[in-house]
Amino acid sequence: MDIPLSSVSLTDRERAYAFDAINTGWISSSGAYVKRFEDALSARVGRSQVIACTNGTLALEIVLRAIGLQRGDEVIVPALTFVAPAAVVKALGGVPVLADIDPQTWTLDPSSVMERVTPRTKAVIAVDLLGHPADYDALVPTLSAYGIFVIEDAAEAHGASYKGKQVGSFGVASCFSFHANKTISTGEGGCVATHHERLAKQVRLLVNHGMTPDRPYWHDVVGTNARMTNITAAIGVGQVERWDELVEARQRVARWYDERLPVELKRRPVAAWATEATWLYTVTHPERDRIVAHLRSRGIDARALWTALCDLPLYGDGTPCPVARRVAREAFWLPTFADLTLAQVETVIDALYEALKAAA
Ligand SMILES: *Cc1c(COP(=O)(O)O)cnc(C)c1O
Predict the structure, then answer these.
(1) Which residues contact 71 (CB under 8 A, 6 or more apart)?
(2) Cβ pair 250, 279 in contact under 8 A
(3) Residue 325 pLDDT more than 90?
């Protein structure tokens, strides 16, 4: 593809920190960059506790284990999302229960969530989909009153905010991904952010073999090894120092698309209370498949959105999710990354006009 969907933005800053990590010899998770990365993230998202780990999927899995998810417990997840939040529930022996999304936000529809609550509901994973926060005021107070944990999956939303407050600060804990295609990237990586000291302690324990701090080789819980390496964290420190620049670069790309987008294409909706931080620029059209095929034939890595989870045999439970299904069938991504140029955006727009003419 001449114009990829996604591409990382790395500078001499990340390079210098990564080389420094290597030069000190500290290449495992012992090393000063891990704490530096955690502290920088903590300041950024306004949570007192941040625990870095190997990826965003394990961050979600470890939070579920830390809140005590048991076999058979139900966890409500949105019917439209990357699969990770549903997969981790199933991997732990829990039951992912799908709630539909709101057509105005593409995030969890609070009324659909309430319809799916049962006495077995342990948690709700709210996804800040494609850079748009979920409606936390409509979720957290009601669910907390039932003793249900709200977990924020902010993997796609670095830099977005909800009613003026940064994502990564909602619910009992928030998870980020730093995968190569995410807005802030360490290649592979993730973290858990929370205000709850007990929960943070449990997460740290689980990430590090369940080993009791200050008591070497004493294990009271079954843990795993999900620690981030010092080299990865060094890249992360460089990326967090560039946080505003990286978020704004994608916003600039989104504005370029906004100003040139053919009227037949609808951009994803944004709620009045949301400050979206575009992760991947997403539009809808009923002739989605033909348009995407045309763009791809022109060397542009446009892609159809994920299949709605209700349409995957592994996750669908027969409950309809009409909004998620419609969006999943009509939505597609255009190339979006910090170093994308205006000339490349214009190439994509030209190809979109061609595709629409052919589809008409
Ligand atoms: C990317 C992503 C994840 C998983 O992150 P990894 O670091 O790739 O494991 C989880 N949830 C959502 C919504 C994502 O987009």
Answers:
(1) 92, 93, 94
(2) yes
(3) yes
Prediction pTM value: 0.98
Secondary structure E strands in 214-321:
266-267, 274-275, 281-284, 303-304
pLDDT digits (tens, 9 = 90+) for 74-123: 999 999 999 999 999 999 999 999 999 999 999 999 999 999 999 999 99
End-to-end CA distance of the chain: 26
Indicate which atom in ligand 1 lies nearest the CA of residue 128: 13
Alpha carbons 56 and 61: distance in angstroms, whole number: 9
Q: Are 112 and 105 in contact (CB under 8 A)?
A: no
Residues with C-beta less than 6 Å from any ligand 1 atom: 55-57, 81-82, 84-85, 127, 153, 155-156, 177, 179, 190
Strand partners, 121: 74
Close Cβ partners of 179 (under 8 Å, ≥ 6 residues apart) = 55, 56, 155, 185, 187, 188, 189
Closest CA to 271 of 152, 147, 106: 106
Three-state DSSP at 235 gives helix
Which residue is closest in CA terms to ligand 1's atom 14? 155
For residue 256, the one-letter residue type is W
Q: What is the pLDDT of residues 172-211, one digit of tens each?
A: 999 999 999 999 999 999 999 999 999 999 999 999 999 9
- List the structure tokens of 227: 């620690």
